Amino acid sequence: MSLYDISVQSARGDNMNLSEYAGQVMLIVNTASRCGFAPQFKGLQKLHETYADQGLAVLGFPSNQFANQEPLEDGSIAEHCLINHGVTFPLFAKIDVKGSDIHPLYRHLTKAAPGLIGLKSIKWNFTKFLVDRQGKVVKRFSPTASPEKIEGTIRKLLQKQTV
């Protein structure tokens, strides 16, 4: 199964396929509005604003699996993130990023890019996956890797893919 075969649901409840992002570099992040890493929303938004016209799609997938740090409902999450963090990049419906009900997207991402010592499970909010323009998962970043720290890697991938 390709990443582009995976269906996701928008915060408004619309079903869509990730093939809509074919040809773009994707930065996929599991988010939580009440997490200590929530200030990263501003950095993710800056990446979106700086590189969207070069083909970067920042995609947020809220999850409430870590200390109940995403208690809001889908529509409220996007509104909260816009008001408090200026987020305009796509935020999708809440999903499970680990466990028996793991969403197919995160099953695919964690298999393609395991974490430390080969562990596949997501350990916390704001784990980031970088996907190239062909839909290949190229790198996994820990929650502590700020958007500013990974910007150089994103820029190189965007340049590499457009040459």
UniProtKB/TrEMBL annotation:
Family: Belongs to the glutathione peroxidase family.
Domain of life: Bacteria
Annotated coiled-coil segments of the chain: none
GO function terms (MF aspect): peroxidase activity
One GO-annotated biological process of the protein: cellular response to oxidative stress
Organism: Cohnella terricola
Keywords per UniProt: Oxidoreductase, Peroxidase
InterPro entries: Glutathione_peroxidase, GPX_AS, GPX_CS, Thioredoxin-like_sf
Name this protein carries in UniProt: Glutathione peroxidase
Active site: C35
